[in-house]
Amino acid sequence: xxxxxSLIHRYVGLIMAIFLLIAELTGAxxxxxxxxxxxxxxxxxxxxxxxxxVQPLNPFVLQERVKVHYPDAWVNYISLNHHPGKSALFxxxxxxxxxxxxSIDLPNDEVFLNPYTGEILxxxxxxxxxxxxxxxxxxxxxxxxxxxxxxxxxxFMGIIAVLWTVDCFIGACLTFPASQRNQSLLNNVLxxxxxxxxxxxxxxxxxxxxxxxxxxxxxxxxxxxxxLYSPGAALRLI
Length: 238
Prior knowledge:
Helix 1 runs antiparallel to helix 5 (136-146) and helix 1 (2-30) crosses helix 6 (151-175). The radius of gyration is 27 Å and the shape is elongated. 55% of the residues lie in helices and 9% in strands. By secondary structure, it is α+β, with helices and mostly antiparallel strands.
């Protein structure tokens, strides 16, 4: 049985590694989402205030200007906070088609305005990488969240998250010492504590292979205990 679950742990881990690597790399980039997006799109997101005493227009005044330029859409996001040097962002959603009773697909659904003049600085279809590099960060976001596959990708990443949680339980079990052969159950129980403390011991001065193995084993056990204590918290960590 131990050999069987060891194989499960190994190959499930190898399969998950591909997708977890994508999630980790894209997540590291997304830690600076807004900053990097502004660097890639200075024309859309960075503006120069006319003077220090000029105040930005009311967000609802800007909303009305957006409505004039996009009569077939309605604004579903307004930022009420103004950040100096930043443009005003509005998200659009297509109006309901009376024939199909579904939202009209808009060519662009993000609009950037100069908050002082109401001038439209530009627009883009969020995450549509085919429009160019100015959509790189939104595309990376969808890659991180759903592998850029929409609802199917969300379902798939959810399955990976569940597999990861279950696999950590398996990994935690594998850190426990195996029963010693040719010994009675009582002797195995009595010697378990003596053998158990070595299971999570990290050999810091050992070879890189052994050190890596010890860190992996101790990490598996720690995460497995976290899952046991609070499965919900463990899934949120994922």
